[in-house]
Design brief:
This protein has 4 helices and 8 strands; from the N terminus they run E-H-E-E-E-E-H-E-H-E-H-E. The protein is an alpha/beta fold and about 200 residues long. The chain has one domain: Rossmann fold (3-Layer(aba) Sandwich). It has a 6-stranded parallel beta sheet with strand order 5-2-1-6-7-8. Helix 3 packs parallel to helix 4. The structure holds pyrazine-2-carboxylic acid and zinc ion. Pyrazine-2-carboxylic acid (VGL) binds next to helix 3. The site of zinc ion has 6 residues, from loops.
Length: about 200
């Protein structure tokens, strides 16, 4: 793929694979698809969910609350998750089978204790940038292809923010898997379509 395109590989980390703390059903199936896809791109950037131990998105930090419930935080509604992707833990490491030696950067996100960040571009307060938009701008990248985990959270939010930043954005659907809690996958698909994000399969790339 041309120099003006980037493949964003979202959160392909142990905790999102079967057996992990926040396992995405069949999340492991994306690994070979993503490896193959990455071979078609000169520019590949990985993201890594990277939370401090007492992160506000963890149900364990909210008395009486359980994972997958929601709470209202200063920046809006937050789904509560099992503790996952704790900085330096095995669960936060990239999947062992992920083989993308030519990846150019790793964007860590969700490291502020009081703010989550599904998106690779903007934290959940919708104000704090991760720096990725600036990196892409300086590199002259105009097209973003998103894959990884999970379709309905970090992939969808990243794709929506990339599109909103003026980048032509595509989600490679067979290189993603969803959590699908409380209608989240259907909502994400609607939001992506409404924003004009393209949905394709990897054989079209
Ligand atoms: C994610 C929930 C919490 C994701 C990250 O990568 O989609 N989902 N943290
Ligand atoms: Zn997270």
């Amino acid at each position: 793929m041309n120099d003006d395109a980037v493949l964003l590989v979202i959160d392909v980390q142990n905790d999102f694979l079967p057996g992990g703390a926040l396992a995405v059903p069949r999340g492991d199936e994306v690994v070979p698809v993503v490896n193959r896809l990455a071979g078609k791109f000169t520019n590949v950037i990985l993201t890594q969910d990277w939370h401090p131990p007492k992160h506000i998105s963890f149900a364990s930090q909210h008395a009486g609350r359980r994972p997958f419930e929601t709470v209202e935080l200063s920046y809006g509604r937050q789904v509560l998750w099992p503790d996952h992707c704790v900085q330096g833990s095995r669960g936060a490491e990239f999947a062992a089978g992920l083989t993308i030696p030519h990846a150019q950067a790793v964007i860590r996100k969700g490291y502020h204790a009081h703010t989550d960040s599904y998106s690779a571009l903007l934290e959940a307060d919708r104000i704090t940038p991760t720096g990725l938009a600036g990196l892409l701008r300086e590199r002259g990248i105009r097209r973003v292809f998103c894959c990884g985990l999970a379709t309905d959270f970090c992939v969808a939010w990243s794709a929506l923010d990339a599109q909103a930043a003026g980048l032509e954005t595509t989600v490679v659907e067979d290189a993603c898997r969803a959590i699908d809690t409380d209608g989240s996958l259907a909502a994400a698909r609607r939001n992506l379509a409404a924003a004009g994000v393209r949905l394709v399969t990897s054989d079209k790339i």
